[in-house]
Amino acid sequence: MLENYGTFGRRIRSAVLGGGASLQFYMIPANLLINKANYVSTGVWAKKALKEAKFVGNVNVIASSEDKNFNYIPQNIAVEQDADYIHFTTNNTIYGTEFKENQVPNAGKVPLISDMSSDLFALKRDFSKYSLIYAGAQKNIGPAGVTLVVIKKSLLENSRKELPSMINYQTHINDDSMFNTPPAFPIYVVGRTFKWIMKQGGLEVIEENNYKKANVLYDYMDANNDFYKPTVTSKDDRSLMNVTFNLNSPELEAKFIEEAKKRYNMTNLKGHRSVGGVRASIYNACPIEWVEALVKFMEEFKAENK
To answer: Is 1 inside a domain boundary?
Structure first.
């Protein structure tokens, strides 16, 4: 996946770990937070990463979208150039926002670290600008139980050396991700998924398909926003993976979700319990035909309930 980025592939070390992205929330500061770190707060998972970092050391929140219930991506983020690293989350599954590559903070000389759990390998990115990428597998990569971590060697040079073995990145790198018994079958599935991505035509084709799918939904809602209201109004900030929207009342939303299940066996459309509403998750494995079927149902439901 990274072979198109020149010498980058020779300057990184990778590890396959357990514990999901949630363990990385602590492992990253445990290894890398010496003086202070910068964090961008754009949703639940970003806040959880921030919480764990505060157990380790000094953390500054340099940008946040919490003032508007995380329904936008902060712009013009100023990174403190004396920070050990800056951390942000690319896609916010609950609120339906996503950093596109042109919105990524300009970190300067500060190591850029990103949680890409829900959109890694869903769109093209310039991976060479990142010093550490991590992702829980269970969205676009494979089954839960595998966590992918990619680290630039230069970042490890300044990491803490005296750490418990299991949370020390160098431990897992030295033992080729087999310091403890790895989850063999999930790793096998990840390998098959990578082959599937390449067979589709790589990230260029995957990204094109994901834009097509998302636009089918967003374009329909924008044309019918008297009935279906996207929670993210800025088109640039909208997630390709998690399309979140509201109807005119919670009761109508509950009816929409129930009817979708009853008529077409469309499940898991209920929004996260913390925000309500409706959420359509359209990860890589979701074909465009399913999205088109959802829009067809949305048209039927509007005609019956407007």
So the answer is: no
Among candidate residues 45, 84, 119, 237, the one labeled active-site is 45
Instruction: Please say if the pLDDT value at position 6 is more than 50.
Output: no
**What type of residue sits at position 152?**
K
- Respond yes or no: is residue 115 known to be catalytic: yes
Specify whether the CB–CB gap between 271 and 247 falls below 8 A. no
pTM equals 0.90
Q: What is the pLDDT of residues 158-211, one digit of tens each?
A: 888 889 888 888 888 887 777 778 888 988 999 999 999 999 999 999 999 999
- Domain around 124: 6-199
> Where does residue 29 rank: exposed (0-12), middle (13-18), buried (19+ CB within 10 A)?
buried
Residue that terminates a domain, selected from 199, 216, 235: 199
Q: In angstroms, rounded to a whole number, what is the distance separating the alpha carbons of residues 17 and 259?
A: 40
Provide the edge-to-edge strand list for the sheet that holds 278-281: 229-230, 242-246, 278-281
Options 84, 115, 119, 237, the catalytic residue = 115
The catalytically annotated residue of 84, 119, 139, 237 is 139
10 Å CB burial of residue 5 (0-12, 13-18, 19+) is middle
Please say which residue of 156, 171, 199 terminates a domain: 199
68 as an active site residue: the answer is no
Of 136 and 39, the one with more pLDDT = 39
Q: Is residue 196 annotated as a catalytic residue, yes or no?
A: no
- Amino acid at position 199, single letter: K
Residue 80 has pLDDT above 90, yes or no: yes
* CB-CB contact of 239 with 139 (8 Å): no
Percent of the chain with pLDDT over 70: 94
